[in-house]
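Notes from the 1:1 (GR / supervisor)

We went over the backlog. Supervisor wanted to see one worked example end to end before approving the batch request, so GR pasted a single chain during the call. The sequence is below; no edits were made to it. Supervisor asked that the structure be written out right there so they could see what the output format looks like.
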Amino acid sequence: MAGEREHPGVESGEDDSDATLQARARALSSPLRLRVLRLCAFEARTNKELAELLEMNPGTMLHHVRTLVQTGFLAAEQERSGTGGAREVPYRATGRSWSTPVPNISPILIETFLQQIEGLGPDEIDVAWMGMKLNAEHREEFQRRLAELMTEFKDRGPDADGETLGAFTAVYSDFNPAAPGD
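Structure output shown during the call:
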C-alpha cells in the first residue's frame, strides 16, 4: 500500500466482477485489516498471534482474518501445532493490496499510519516535510517518481537481514495563498 499506494490492476484470469472488486475495497477500508496485512507481509502469523499483537479479542480478529482470506489478501500456510497441541493456521499477505483500487483510501491510510506510529519516540520516526509550487506537469512527474521508487523497492522483495520499516507519503494541496501581485 502506498505506503502501499493503491493502483488499479487485477491479475489476469482472476474474478474482477464489480461485486468482487467492491468486496476487496471494503476489506481494505479498515485500518485494522491494513495493519494485519503489514504484520503478515514478511512472516506468517496465526489468528492468535495477530490478536495478541494488536491487543484484540481472538474472535474479533478471526472475523477480520476471514475477510482478508476470502478476498485474497491473506493466504493460509501449512497448519502447525501450537502450545498444547492445538491446531494453528498461519497466514501470510499475498501482496494483492498493492494492486487493488480503493476509493477514498487516503483517510484510511492516514488513520493506519497514525495507529502504526502511536507510542514511537521522536528518534524512531524519520520525517521530512516540504512545500513546493509545481505546475501540473511537474506535480505529475513528482508523484510518478515517488510511486516508481516505492514500487521498485516493493518489487525487490525483503532483505533476509533487513529491518522491517514503513514508509508513508502524502502529496496534497497546501493552503498557502498567493502573495499580492502574484
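Supervisor's comment: The two ends are 38 Å apart (CA to CA).
Batch request approved.
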